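Appendix B. Chain record.
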Amino acid sequence: MYKEIYPDKDFRKVLKKLSGSDLGTCIQCGTCSVVCSLAPDDRPFPRKEMIGAAWGLKDQLMGNCDIWLCHQCGDCSTHCPRGVKPADVIASLRTLTYRHYARPKFMGKLLSSPVWLPVAILIPVVIISLILTLAGTFAIPEGPVNYSKFFPHAWLNGSFTLLTLLSWLLAWKGFSMFQKEMKTSFPESKPIQGFVKSLKQVFSELMAHSNFTGCKEQKTRKTAHLLVFYGFILLLLVTLYAIFAVVIGRYPLKPGNVFKIAGNLASLMLFTGLGILIFNRLVNPAKSGKSNYADWLLLISMLLLTLSGSLVQFARFGNWGIAYPLYFFHLVCVWFVIIYLPYTKFGHLVYRTLAMAYARSAGRKSKK
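Structure tokens predicted for this chain:
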């Protein structure tokens, strides 16, 4: 039985430009799927994805869970006899996925092109300024540095929590669409276990980053990702405690406070992990793959968030004159990493988790 296909020439052009790959030179030798340690034995990737990319089959690629099972080690690109770079094609497909499922739609465009970066920056600047104006504190306070005088804790915690929830609630429609459309990618697959059980197994897998072990070309990626992953989680826990400390009247935290120490440790982990990732992309792009705007937006945003957070701390203890502008800048960085999360590459935390859980529930086991 034949199935109709609907090539999208515009989608193919965008994918070709984004990946930098000459899609037409792929000879379908299957080497990419053979060398991949994660591809399932049944309908392995990325060979079939390369067929879809060459034809511009957008409807088959956007809801494809397999592009999220790839961990971007670059083994397939290294061994490709035609230099088509399947890893870069898969990475670009994920970038287009953020744009495709973004809800509201303009958020996908806003955070996928450098042309819109000034607008993406202007939005948090304007909204934070408006909140400060409503709080009646949009001015440099006199006396020793006290950030709560500039941005009262109740206004800060309340507004940023509300904005984050709003962003995620709006984005959840796109996540739901993605989860629904994954089921059409492999219609013949029969669930072998429940989605919730699969999700629990995936969380264990993600916590250990076990799938990174099979990658041969980039041995430092697992270390770097673990440092960034756990550094970010630790920083979130410290932030949650800081909010709790405000409620019980034990904020600001003293330098010797265990949570203050944990926060500085988290910053060190993030600096190290991000440093490795950025170094590899700059010094060894052949193995790291082509770095597009989505890659750099995430890396630079997280780096600036970590750096500004550390400087804000020093500014308070040292009563620096630039403390409050620096704090404002830090809040903009928080917005980029946390509130914009569903629409940037950081959204892979959700997309990959959903895809891996669905693949496991549908019985798409890797070679491992």
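Further analysis of this model is presented in Appendix C.
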